[in-house]
Design a protein that fits this description.
6 helices, 3-stranded antiparallel sheet, 104 residues, elongated, ECO RV Endonuclease, Chain A, mainly alpha, single chain
Length: 104
């Protein structure tokens, strides 16, 4: 896996959003505090893809070989696995509550 440099990967346009949206800024700050280098988040994504492909059992090692329903299921698995990794609270109207903000 290539190292991820968060500072280099930050989109210049996203800074304007963070400055104009206090809830987005609070969620961003909380996630960076939990995972400053993005390694935990990346590991969840990698593990979820591996969970879906499961090459040893299915013989599939490529995202393109998944069925449409399996790809759709990926989003749900990512949400579940992120909540397990970061122990986000359940949201009121959305999936999670991060820094007191409902997040989907």
């Amino acid at each position: 896996m290539l190292p991820l440099d968060i500072a280099a990967a930050t989109n210049v346009h996203s800074q304007a959003f963070l400055e104009s949206d206090p809830e987005l800024s609070a969620v961003h700050t909380r996630i960076l505090r939990l995972d400053p280098a993005g390694q935990r988040f990346a590991a969840v994504l990698r593990d979820t893809i591996d969970q879906l492909l499961n090459g040893e059992v299915t013989g599939r090692y490529d995202w393109k070989t998944l069925f449409k329903t399996e790809k759709t299921h990926a989003g749900t698995l990512v949400e579940i696995n992120l909540q397990r990794e970061f122990t986000f609270d359940d949201g009121t109207d959305m999936d999670y509550k991060i820094a007191g903000v409902d997040v989907d």
